[in-house]
Amino acid sequence: MSGPHAHVQVWSFLLAALVAGGELVYLRGWLCLRSAFPNLLPKWRLTAFTTGLILVWTVAGSPLAALDHLSLTIHMMKHLLLMTLAAPLVLAGAPAFPLVCGLPKIFIQSYPPLTSLPARWLESGIRHPAFCWFAGTVTVVVWHIPTLFQMALQSNWVHSFEDISFLVAGVLFWSPVVRRLTSEMKPLPWYLPLYLFLATLPCDILSAFLAFYGRAAYPSYQAAVGMFFLSPLQDQECAGALMWVWVTFAYLIPAVVITVQILGFKRPATEPGPDVKWIPVSRQSIRFEVR
């Protein structure tokens, strides 16, 4: 018991330190940008980013996180919270600029740090909606393969890596959606509702497998102490139902909202002002390019 208990303490401390450090750097950059450009980053972005970080620690680093070894339903809830709530909240904070501006000069001299052509190609590929959709979907499916799932339950460090991968996959998956929804004076692309709808299909198949498989898919939960007076099979069925309902609301409701906005979008009657592109060249020199 000392090994898992020690890991929980170390992991909780490391994650708390990362969350606190990220919040301090973001807050420093946010205050700097707000003092120079009061309308650039509204307060709701700071609130969203902070809430997302608190949720990350609560789900993956707090003592409550250890309960997922006792219940597949709780394990499923952790992953859903990381991917569908914590990740979009962090993205809604527009973290790139505040984090860069908040870092001490010793850590970074220019933004972006890599300006070579291969680096720009890599960034473009990572930001492409197809890659983001693929990363989010594959992460969900692969980690529910019984062999890998058992490995995560039996190794605390693999389990921690699993939590990190769900958060990173959530950030990648939601980045095209959040980036478009938070931009102004631009019509939403038609592919976003399809992007979200197609993401529900693998989750529906996986949730149906868990709900109707008829026996426990993961041996570790067969010997686990039952929670909520559920047997291991009932717990698995509940996890499958939770995934189906949660994903339906998390993906399809934004898809419907985006569809309504696309169908009702009207361009402004007057020509909007120039499109201002913010290019932080360095911490000492911030340049604006008007296109």
Detail the topology: elements first, then pairings.
Layout: H1 2-36, H2 43-60, H3 72-92, H4 96-102, H5 117-127, H6 129-143, H7 146-154, H8 156-181, H9 191-212, H10 232-264, E1 276-280, E2 286-290
Antiparallel strand pairs: 1-2
Describe the model.
The chain is mainly alpha-helical. It has one domain. It is 68% helix and 3% strand. It contains ten helices and two strands. The chain has helices spanning 2-36, 43-60, 72-92, 96-102, 117-127, 129-143, 146-154, 156-181, 191-212, 232-264, and strands at 276-280, 286-290. The chain has a two-stranded antiparallel ribbon. Strand 1 and strand 2 (286-290) form a beta hairpin. The longest helix is centred in the N-terminal third of the chain and has 35 residues, at 2-36. The relative contact order is 0.11. Residues 267-291 have low confidence and may be disordered.
